[in-house]
Task: structure prediction
Amino acid sequence: WIIRPFVAARDEALVQVGRMALTDPLTRLANRRLISEHLGIAIAASARHKEYGAVLALDLDGLKAVNDGYGHKAGDAVLVEVAERLPAIIRAEDVVGRLGGDEFVILIHRLGTDESSARDRALLVADKLIALVKEPLDFNGETLEVSASIGIRMLGSSTLDVPTALHEADVALYHAKNTGRGRAAFFEETEPTS
Result:
């Protein structure tokens, strides 16, 4: 009798530790480790099924101004609110995670076998994410605003590994930031990656 509550408590503790190892503590989204696992699966599935997918690197524009003007609690509130909004745009089989700071990653599976159509679908998701992030947030009676820039790395057009896919999504993200912020840009395989 006494052993059962102990075993149940131990099992619950193990579940909690496992969850903590794979989720971001602030947003409760997938962390870098879990995103990397899912991205590896997405890359392999895209190659195996000859179907495109995409990894989107999303970075918040204006979070530093929120932190500077209203404090880090406000910045954390923005991160949590954005984390709650992002899954509303994607399908259940897709994955949203936070890499750290103000950078999020969205993995989109099964965008189709036609590259042009898959790119259009990935861009449509990115545009919806940008619009959703741009909606004002309330923090203690103050209206806070941030925007998002997104880099898109299509999956399925070549053999990739996880670090390269994340890096190339980041290259596209910084291209989006450098050309106006609040927009999405694709990584083109002809771009230098260093």
